[in-house]
Amino acid sequence: MSKVIVVGGGAAGMLAALSAAQEKADVLLLEKNEKLGKKLYLTGKGRCNVTNHCTLDEFMQEVPHNARFLYSAITAFSPQDMMRLLEDCGCPLQVQRGRRVFPVSEKASDVTRALQAALTQAGAAVRINTEVESILTQDEQVTGVRLRGGESLSADAVIVCCGGTSYPKTGSTGDGDRFAASLGLRVEPRRASLSAVITEESWPAELQGLSLRNTELTLTHGKKCIYQQTGEMLFTHFGVSGPLVLEASCHLPEEVSECELTINLKPGLSREILDQRLQRELSATPRRQLGSIMPSLVPARLGEVILSLCGIAAETLCGQVTRKKREEIAAMMQSLTLHIAALRPIEEAIVTRGGVSVKELNPTTMESKKIAGLFFAGEAIDVDAHTGGYNLQIAFSTGRAAGRAAAKTRES
Ligand SMILES: Cc1cc2nc3c(=O)[nH]c(=O)nc-3n(C[C@H](O)[C@H](O)[C@H](O)COP(=O)(O)OP(=O)(O)OC[C@H]3O[C@@H](n4cnc5c(N)ncnc54)[C@H](O)[C@@H]3O)c2cc1C
Q1: How many whole angstroms from 155 Cα to the centroid of ligand 1?
Q2: How many other CB atoms are found less than 10 A from the CB of residue 223?
Q3: Residues 94, 50: Cα–Cα separation, whole Å
């Protein structure tokens, strides 16, 4: 029987430990927090968007980075497999808009509870309040772990599931990166992914709290369009956030200073049709002030900003708006441009990019190519995806692959 130690009791660690235990390994899951799945409790605003009920091809399209590496793990343990597992453990699920899957109870704690019950049933041992300080190896083979405090535990296999570096209070403090680097593995630098954006312009702050729906957002780098999508976004005191912005941020290059976001408030209308509509509104009420008709076209506060960006007073009478100014207003409604100053601090990102390079790992087993018996899973690996349940599924699928393979280390 292989002795498997799993470091980190988040989504990846729980699946890794469960999978290894189901393969009859002697499993010990070590978690430095006082409970398992601390980050999981925060997911989906406490509702936990646990996976996405999509096909493999659809899944891969939501992974902008290192998707090919994940192909084998997601094929072997798909979103539908994860849904079955959770329902079998007593956590009924529901599929919502965009095929997003949530517990029927809409409580993230129910996902953790179900996985914990499954771990107990499968015979995996769990030690909380236990921090791993280093991974022990000999002759490029894992031999165990050393705990903070000095105690050493031996193992045939160690699965590192320490997460990334965002929301560090949940325990994700980059320990996996440190372990990998100290063993000579290549570690890609961490960066925020799924992050809100700080803009050079200050006018978004005037619109703080305003959320836009059915808006088209285009991200450009120089002249190149690198992302375009329609959906929801939000203005904040520092710039912009919301689902569209978070998703766009995954596509940003490292140097963001040449990148722009362009907001089209009327993606369904051609410029000509929009201009005709504006012209109709203006000529129907020539004696009204321009500012008073803007709310019929865009949210009121945004209307004020648009007029100010066009350099036209809200008090101007509709009948006095020149054709040039009218065309400028229509153009502004379809191309409100924001220059990206920076991403919000990495600690606030929903996920982080970077971590153990995929080149270091076998994509079927998640085992290190250099150190036998050493596995990685979840956000510890340099993979990340869009919002929609894909990131948790990556943690589950890679955890599953690592757990099953680690259980067989004695045989190999
Ligand atoms: C606010 C928020 C909302 C999110 N919502 C969603 C969502 O709805 N759907 C979705 O798919 N994704 C969501 N995500 C992303 C998702 O939570 C992560 O991708 C996922 O948790 C990664 O799982 P993991 O197990 O790899 O890492 P983590 O969940 O970070 O778990 C790592 C664990 O390892 C432990 N650990 C670290 N170092 C050590 C050590 N040295 N010794 C012992 N233990 C250690 C940590 O304490 C932690 O418990 C969200 C993220 C955030 C921050």
Answers
A1: 24
A2: 6
A3: 10
Residue 39 alpha carbon, nearest atom of ligand 1: 29
**Res. 189 pLDDT band, cuts 50 70 90:** very high
Q: Is 235 in the pocket of ligand 1 (CB under 6 A)?
A: no
The closest-lying atom of ligand 1 relative to the alpha carbon of residue 349 is 53
pLDDT tens, residue by residue, 121-167: 999 999 999 999 999 999 999 999 999 999 999 999 999 999 999 99
Ligand 1 within 6 A of CB of 131 = yes
Q: How many whole angstroms separate alpha carbon 148 and alpha carbon 134?
A: 8
| pLDDT digit string, tens, across residues 347-397 | 999 999 999 999 999 999 999 999 999 999 999 999 999 999 999 999 999
pLDDT of residue 412: 62
**Structure tokens that stand for 185 in this block:** 């593995």
User: Which of 83, 146, 241, 392 gets mutated to test ligand 1 (max ligand atoms within 8 A of its CB)?
Assistant: 392
Q: The tokens of 378 are what?
A: 């979840």
Write out the H or E segment, with its range, that includes residue 282.
helix 271-284
Among 53, 391, 396, the mutation site with the greatest number of ligand 1 atoms within 8 A of its Cβ is: 391
Q: How much is the pTM? A: 0.95
What is the average per-residue pLDDT within 203-212?
Answer: 97
Nearest ligand 1 atom to the CA of 166 is 53
Ligand 1 atom nearest to CA at 33: 47
Amino acid at 412: S
Domains of the chain: 3-192+351-406 (3.50.50.60), 196-343 (no CATH)
